[in-house]
Amino acid sequence: MTDSPSSPTSIDSHSKSPSTFVGDEKSETSSVLEKLPWDGYLEVDIPEKKEGKVFRDIRHIIFTIYHRLFGIVFLANAGILISLFVYGVDTNRLGLITVSNIFVAILMRQDYVVNALFDIFTSVPRSWPLWFRLLMARVYHLGGIHSGAAVSGTIWLAATAGKGIQEYTSGDGRISLATLVISWVILAFLVIIILMALPAFRSVSHDKFERVHRFAGWTATALVWVHVVLLTNDWRGEASLGYALVHSAPMWLMFIITGSLALPWMRLRKVPVRSIALSDHAVRLYFNYKVFGMHPRPYPGSAARISLDPLHEWHAFACVPVPGTDEWSMVVSQAGDWTTELIRNPPSNIWVRGTAVAGVLRVNIMFRRVVFVATGSGIGPIAPCLFAHDQPHRLLWTGSNIRKTFGDDLVDSVIEAEPGAVIYDTRKYGRPDMVKLTYKLVQDFNAEAVVIISNEPLTKKVVYGLMSRGVPAFGAIWDS
């Protein structure tokens, strides 16, 4: 960590002080004359972390809300599984529970379901107790239900396949060889999907994870349809197959599952896009199109997916509504081969699908005063929240040559929306202690919560550093 400038005092963050932009030709003189907002932050007394290290790590790292939700779903399924095998179970009932878990797993990743859950949870009034709002704000951890149900469904399918072998070999059951074979094929696909979704693999090969998740998932869904029909036929007794299917709960669940998977692709469009190069490292894409005769209405805290090759690769970026128009934009900064190529050769048309989906930033509307923290291109998702003026807020934006990287239009619009922004040039002043600097802003601004958009290591460090000191903090969790 580098020492901050040695001015003895700092700008009062409660006042409408002008934004300090260090290392920018437009404000170089003023930044020397003015005292810098972070002056002396390294000397600020930051409280010790609460609780012992073991308990603290268990609470904030091991048993996060995501992991707790996963555990609740998994243990509930484990309890049901044990009780059924104790009291007796057949492949028909096991098949129903398998499909039910797959149903929950898929719905918890469906765009419209996710948005509906965010709308419900974030509708809590700001007048309600802070502890309750903090609990509701963890809505973005609901992916734990998705993964818990997916893993549980896979285990239930393994139990179905195992029980099927027992029934088939003993001759006591009704299951057919075709049903048994399909069960094991689906199980193989689900195991591959789960293994590819593990953080150790997903973090180093995200593109492969996405492709396997998509194509293996589609294949598994088709095979589950076959499995449902075969298993229903095995257990229909004297009834006709058509009658048995109409009265089969798994079949109706499969209709909803298939519709949930198909709906985003029904909104697949290749649309015109207007590109404005911000620098050699970033481009801003502008959209103005209709789907089913209506303009999409992205909102602050949401992200939309774009692609140049819709079957293989999709990338999500934050949506920035353009006030007073039907147009909206997204900022794409250099973060890999795909974004590098997009910046070098901006397209005139691009693929979009589904709808804009709420993310962690959406929870900001639940709090009275918020500190937003962005590093580099993290300003893209945060900017719409600043423009919306949902509540008093303060911005900390760190990066190297920010104006040169992101262009005057974006930087000036951010400064206009947040005149008290603290913009820290890491090239001029080195990397700051982000936990200390953020904590100082929280105390100066009397904020209720912090929302950070950054890379994974820094996000986890800042969220942990603040949460362990009793400061509510929210950041992406990189779940599957």
Automatic annotation (TrEMBL):
Comp. bias regions, Low complexity: 1-20
Protein name per Swiss-Prot or TrEMBL: Nonribosomal peptide synthetase 12
Transmembrane segments: 69-88, 94-118, 139-159, 179-200, 212-232, 244-266
Domain of life: Eukaryota
Keyword Transmembrane helix: yes
InterPro entries per UniProt: Adenylate-forming_domain (IPR052979)
Keywords: Membrane, Transmembrane, Transmembrane helix
Residue numbers spanned by region Disordered: 1-28
